[in-house]
Structures are given as C-alpha cells and as structure tokens.
C-alpha cells in the first residue's frame, strides 16, 4: 500500500505544485497483507488524495499516514483545507452529491463501495475552515 500511495503522489505532483500544498507522509514499512485489487485501491486513494489537495491551497498541508492498527490497515489522510459543514459531511458518498464546481459527484460513492467490498470502512471528520480527516480501514488478510 505504501508503494501505491507513493505512486499516486507522483501522479498528482502537478496538482500538489499548482496548489502549493506541502505533503507529509508517515508510512509503517512492515505491514501484513490485505486482500484487494490494486487498480481499485488506486482509484480510491487517487480520488481521496486529489480531493484533499484540491481543498487545500496556499501553503496548506496534506498528511498521509499508512500503518497497522489492530487487525486493520489504516490509511489516514488529513488536510488543512476548507473543510465541510456538518450538513455537507452527512451527504458524502451519496450519488451525484458534489462539493466542486466540476465533477459528477460519484467519485466518493465509488470509493465507499470499493472499500466496503473488502469489509473495510471510511470515516470522514471535517470542520469548516479547519480541514478534513479521512480514515480508511481495511482488514488484514489473516483477520478476514
């Protein structure tokens, strides 16, 4: 998973630079295996990381942590972006709900469905003008 996230960061480097965002990473190196499709995980994390970068401007920070937490792989993405109201937060993952001017509003819905397919979960916490934290948990293969 660490290599996948590093590859995604390389793919979105132009967005990182154009939004003047600082990226912090903290990756645990030795992690048990998870059962997942790499292409699907790439879709999920490219979407989540891109959303965080786009919500964070002018020297803001996006932090990405990958580590073991009990029987799960935890991927945590935190940004110092614009954040969301409680009303908007409650609608995340609904089909065609979109926070951006461009886009279809199905990206996050697809992320939720992919993670649920692997018995995982996505938890989002946000505060307007403070930022957003997204926690993705996927069970390790030995615990499924």
TrEMBL record:
Annotated Histidine kinase domain residues: 1-142
Record's keyword terms, sorted: ATP-binding, Kinase, Nucleotide-binding, Transferase, Two-component regulatory system
GO BP field: phosphorelay signal transduction system
Catalytically driven reaction(s): ATP + protein L-histidine = ADP + protein N-phospho-L-histidine
GO function term, MF aspect, one: ATP binding
SMART domains xref list: HATPase_c
Record-listed E.C. numbers: 2.7.13.3
Enzyme class, spelled out: transferase
InterPro entries with a match to the protein in the record: HATPase_C_sf, HATPase_dom, His_kinase_dom, Sig_transdc_His_kin-like_C
Top-level taxon of origin: Bacteria
PANTHER family in alphabetical order: SENSOR HISTIDINE KINASE, SPORULATION KINASE A
Protein name according to UniProt: histidine kinase
Organism from which the protein derives: Schinkia azotoformans MEV2011
């Amino acid at each position: 998973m660490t290599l996948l996230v590093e590859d995604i960061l390389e793919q979105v480097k132009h967005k990182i630079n154009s939004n003047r965002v600082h990226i912090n990473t903290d990756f645990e190196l030795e992690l048990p295996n998870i059962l997942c499709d790499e292409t699907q995980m790439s879709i999920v994390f490219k979407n989540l990381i891109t959303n965080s970068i786009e919500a964070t401007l002018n020297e803001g920070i996006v932090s990405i942590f990958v580590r073991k937490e009990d029987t799960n792989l935890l991927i945590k993405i935190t940004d110092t972006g614009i954040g969301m109201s409680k009303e908007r937060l409650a609608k995340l993952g609904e089909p065609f709900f979109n926070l951006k001017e461009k886009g279809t509003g199905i990206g996050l819905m697809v992320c939720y469905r992919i993670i649920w397919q692997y018995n995982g979960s996505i938890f989002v916490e946000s505060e307007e003008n403070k930022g957003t934290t997204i926690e993705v948990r996927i069970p390790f293969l030995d615990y499924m």
